[in-house]
Amino acid sequence: MPNSPSNLLDDTNVTVLKGVGKHLAATLAKLGIVTVSDLLFHLPMRYVDKTRITPIGDVRLHIHSVIQGRVTGNQINFGKRRSLSVTLDDGTGTISLRFFHFNAAQKTQMSPGAIVRCYAEPRRGTTGLEFYHPEYSIVDDEHQTPMEETLSPVYGLTEGISQGRLRKLTELAVAQLRTHAPQELLPEQINRQFGIASLSEALDYLHFPPPSASVELLTEGHHPCQQRLAFEELLAHYAVRQEMRMLAQTEKGPTMTADEAITATFLKSLPFSLTGAQLRVFEEIKTDMCKAVPMLRMVQGDVGSGKTLVAALAAIMAAQAGYQVAIVAPTSILAEQHFANFTQWLKPLGIGTTWLVGRLTASQKRQALADITENRAQVVIGTHALFQEGVNFHRLGLTVIDEQHRFGVDQRLRLREKNIDNERPHQLVMTATPIPRTLAMTAYAELDYSVIDELPPGRKPINTVLIKQKRRIAVIERIEKACKEGKQVYWVCPLVEESETLEVANAEATATELQEIMPDVTVGLVHGRLKPAEKDHVMAEFKTAKLRLLVATTVIEVGVDVPNANLMIIENPERLGLAQLHQLRGRVGRGSAASHCVLMYGDKLSQNARERLNVLRESNDGFVIAQKDLELRGPGELLGTRQTGDMQFRIADTQRDAHMVEQIHQIGKQLMQEENANIKNLIARWFGKNKVYAQV
Ligand code: ADP
Ligand code: MG
User: Fold this and answer.
1) Record: fold of 463-619
2) pTM
3) CB of 591 closer than 6 angstroms to any ligand 1 atom
4) Of 57-61, 526-530, 626-630, 659-663, which has the strongest mean pLDDT?
5) Is 334 near ligand 1, meaning CB less than 6 Å away?
6) Quick one: which atom of ligand 1 is closest to the CA of 402?
7) Which of 59, 99, 203, 558 is 20 to 30 A from 426 (CA-CA)?
8) Where are the domains of the chain?
9) Average pLDDT, the chain
10) Are 130 and 122 in contact (CB under 8 A)?
11) How far apart are CA 271 and CA 201, in angstroms?
12) Residue 463 pLDDT
């Protein structure tokens, strides 16, 4: 096996590539790309087919296509947002292109008579189907752009770099592969097992699939080259997490004793009894907290399974043992919700609480910080503001991280700073993401794992229906009716994976449209581009029912409890993973009224997509849904779930690749036992050299 001793590409800065200056290097760094090797390991998110032109008459909603036609109209619209629209005709039909960002030259370029070829995903616009911000080129006698011969990779981008540019750079990097093979870090048998010759071959193939490549395999992520890399990535995750775990085991944790009396008093004060699962998970936590090594435990529990109360029990135990507790939530609205709950629960027990979020006034913040330092507040609830400097706990003994997938592992580690007794606080992380146990043992190998596998009794299942986009008006009437009856509604706009700008533009357009159709309904909008304070403001108004309808992108706040909302519309659910849909849907069904979720799909739904969505109609169980999701992943349709925070895989997919987990464990253990040097290189390759992972 060719196993180049050189690790050259790992040490070569991207600036050696032609055309990469300081500025571009800084942009690439935002994507985690510093070396040529990083560029090679920035793998395509998916592939699109630009090998043929689709007649305009055959263009279908949401199916990415290349079209070519003559410009028949070209005008600037002065609406709420200025836009340029260009009409194309190819003899089979007409369609409008719409640009929100454009210049005068573009308008002139696309004058009537010009032939334009463009590529985009058609969406519903004011004139019927429209192409928003297509990639385009002018076709004339001098510029006969040939069609692509192979599938085109689609890369994750950031502001300041285009698909085309990144692709050109990748081309340069791949050229280097031929002379400097990246080091093979896995045992030899692995390449053979996946039927590939070398890592170089796999990288080359994935960036530039040959004309014969199967769209289906590549789109599903089942191609052997992808699987080979996913294997390596998961192994790197396992290794880094396992190292964290081993380090943690050598540390001193706060040894606490449980106070059964206070626990009993607390449980008696609740209007309901805990489920068996909640009690069992608390027992597991209790056992950990009584030990002399710091706890690192993940609690998985479906939306609504009552994780907060389990956290409260742990917090009471720590406070009673003389320690402080930090509870971290991903958004201030969620922190506020927890603060209200914890204060109500803990005050009668004589346990002080405070909270810390970015938007407190200077004097409130000063007060909170003093209460923390001087131990007047034993339980502190906050956002990532708690990770910041200036927060000095008197004696931190437990950290609880809610909705942990929203936080990076480095943020989590920052809350493990030692306390005055030189002890590492216990840590509990909570998640609603259904992760099979074996997988959790790989991707979160540093954590022990508990599951709350039971919902509180009496929950009403959410009634889920499938409806066509064509019946949008009927759906809107239903929203109007719900709002008139005093209820509240969520509307989730489609996922646009490659461009957040487009996703936001689309959500803005939807909010405007809905407001125009329903002038009496108060409509709000949240999306990922809002500043945290703006987002909080909108969420707070929705919480207090000042807003009746909340239009949101798929980055909708996690964990928010608005029991009065009992209807959710999800547009184009066929693009989302079932697990993600299940989580979104979990925002409703929290009150006493029956709740509904309307999955409004594009005009055509494949057999497979229908089957997948039917799973949601039939089940309300996160684990069942995740399992079915895996079995039914439809080729070429699902965009995959955008990964945030902790679980950022470049190519691995925790559901799809779960079958590799056992072998990964076995090889990972073996390499670590041998203290194989490749482990270090593997971690550096996939996580960068300077990450905090190794410094638990
Ligand atoms: P999640 O696991 O999604 O964070 P929460 O902790 O927010 O769930 O709990 C959801 C709701 O269920 C809350 O209103 C909470 O008070 C309630 N709840 C929690 N445990 C029980 C229980 N054992 N019986 C009845 N209601 C419960
Ligand atoms: Mg929660």
Assistant:
1) Rossmann fold (3.40.50)
2) 0.75
3) no
4) 659-663
5) no
6) 4
7) 558
8) 8-48+155-217, 56-139, 252-452, 463-619
9) 87
10) yes
11) 62
12) 94
